[in-house]
Description:
By secondary structure, this protein is α+β, with helices and mostly antiparallel strands. It is built from 16 helices and 18 strands. It has an 8-stranded mixed sheet with strand order 6-10-11-18-17-16-15-14, with helices on both faces. It has a 5-stranded mixed barrel with strand order 1-2-3-5-4. About 35% of the residues are buried. Its main location: cytoplasm.
Amino acid sequence: MTTEPILTTEEFNEQMRIRMEKRSRMLERGDEPYPVKPERTSSLAEIRKRFSQLEAGESTGEDVSVVGRVVFLRNTGKLCFATLQEGDGTRLQAMLSLAAVGEEPLADWKAVVDLGDHVQVAGEVISSRRGELSVMASGWKMASKALRPLPTLHAGVNEETRVRQRYVDLLVREEARQMVRTRAMITRSIRETLHARDYIEVETPILQLVHGGAAARPFETHVNAFDQKMTLRIALELYLKRAVVGGIDRVYEIGRIFRNEGVDSTHSPEFTMLECYEAYADQFVMADRMKEIVLNCADLLGSRQIETEAGTINLDGDWRWLGVYPGLSEAVGREITPETSRESLLAVAAEREVSVDPAWDEEKLVLELFSEIVEPTLVQPTFVYDYPPSAQPLARPHRNKPRLIEAWDLIIGGMERGTAFSELIDPVIQRERLTEQSRRAAAGDEEAMQLDEDFLRALEYGAPPMGGIGLGIDRLVMLFTAAGIRETILFPLLKPELG
Length: 499
């Protein structure tokens, strides 16, 4: 955007002081540095589109009024140049000549306008002698005075600043603006896919009396009106299932959820999930739904092949199904089954240098070993299924295989992107599962679910057999953009600034 060097603190403060003085001078003489609505007849993009064929040196005879942010300035004696930029990144040159704009407005431009200011320029659309589409100004006004100097395009914005001050990142990097557009396209595609399947979008409570629907530590808050402790939701699941009980057979929500856990390149305490539930479906129907969602996103973005450091991910063709126990057995070179002892699993962990808690039970050990040994190797789309029951307390027992449940995780690029179940609808078994979860919570497990009596009451009215999906929107964006989670979330949660 600019080629200025990085400003020292002293230089930055001096520029701030100078810009404040310019603002004050404008106010003193009766000029408005922040007018309510500057005159604007056309966007910069409209001008670019309408006059794209204009030859060098040609004039149109058409006057327009445009508004944009000044991202380049060159002031000479009798002719000044500025590059204006609008929100989508479109740029257009403005030219101010002594002959066309007059002596006082030209002098005022030189004295007042800085990089970063929004200005309104009125004049004729022309093509400069060098063929640059331009507005030859007959007049100009300040639209919004910037008090902080813009950073340089590359050197001026480090990663921490880009994430913490996303508005600056959006100003100077087209990649940042494209990320916003890409995420919006993905979200729109998901909605269109589900609407085509007759799903109904709903909204469910963010503040909840009982936390459930996932194994996660919640954020706690307090509702003064009820004098009641509550939590921010950790999942969308339990209220959406209540809707299915009530007859909304195909239902979904795209919503923010909150988990009071660690922060790294793939986890954020605040993130966006899609959850959808379909009556009379099972995990295999939901696998078809998930594949359709992902492929429609890929098609909208232009390719079913994704280039990554681990190689090309090909979303075309059949997606692999891999059982948890067979997958782990193949990876470690010995048979692992639901009957494998804890001692044997601890031995595998020691051999493979996987950090585990010796107190974990067999199911937890299997899940940890699979996550550390197998999951990172699954680059191509893979439905990992046939989990032990503790992996998903809200999933139905397997129809054919004792000691397993009907659930899968979709792994692409070595990372979980989403999950689905044949949902547990038996209120008796669900009560047993949630009671066990509540025991774990009482024993100090901060991620265990609570016993939700109202949810169980809903199931007791008779829930139809159903399948359900949970898909991390942020992780889907990460898949298509090869970016970390902090880049995919427009304004991610960050530590407070020091000082």
